[in-house]
Give the backbone structure.
Amino acid sequence: MADIGAVSRAPVYSADELQALSDAFEKKPAQAVLAWALERFHPRFALSSSFGAEDVAVIDMLWRLNPKARVVTLDTLRLPKETYEVIERIQDKYGIQVEVYRPQPQAVAEMVSQHGLNLMYESIDKRKLCCHIRKVEPLERALVGLDAWAAGLRRQQASTRTDVKKIELDPARPDKIKINPIADWTWEQVWAYIREHQVPYNALHDKNYPSIGCDPCTRPVRPGEDPRAGRWWWELDPTQKECGLHVAEPPPSLTPAAKT
Ligand code: SF4
């Protein structure tokens, strides 16, 4: 892990300047915005990767620009085995060490003790508590000391992502800049890149999983279904289908040990 100190610096760009930068990069290749971010912020810049198709394409681009580019991931301890496998394959191919963040054991133990291991199926509040403990809190630790971070978000992925900009103030963390280098890409562009550059990818993509999260919260989609229909499929409101990593959300209404 890079020695960057723990304190994030305030953004050196105003929201208007970031909007202008984002506009300027809108018609440029994804590599251009990544090169800018690496030049401007490395090593206080990292990709947060869940190792879906979008993320592995961005890892390949980053590695070609700077083999020391940083990649962090959140191991919720409930990932499918195929995700752990692709992490290994990516590390082997590129010779990189992915920085892994896991949930706090005590918080997980209290949550499971009070609500059970599969609390996510019982209510949106319980699902968001699980996402907070297993994903959001570890991401907050992963971002300590960073000025900017990247994600593989695309506008076409979900109704919650149609306004994603290539460069923006992090909506959930206004002291950081968020880079979305492939915001304008289509699903077909992602796969064309993966095939052209022979990027290792999650084997679940070949089994009708366009979007891959934790094992208990992801299922394959049927023909014609929305690409994110397999995420938290038992929840019917598409505006709720975020885990808090990419949107500003209030803290969960439940605590790990709250009685309900
Ligand atoms: S996706 Fe599911 S298992 Fe993973 S953190 Fe969220 S609720 Fe928990």
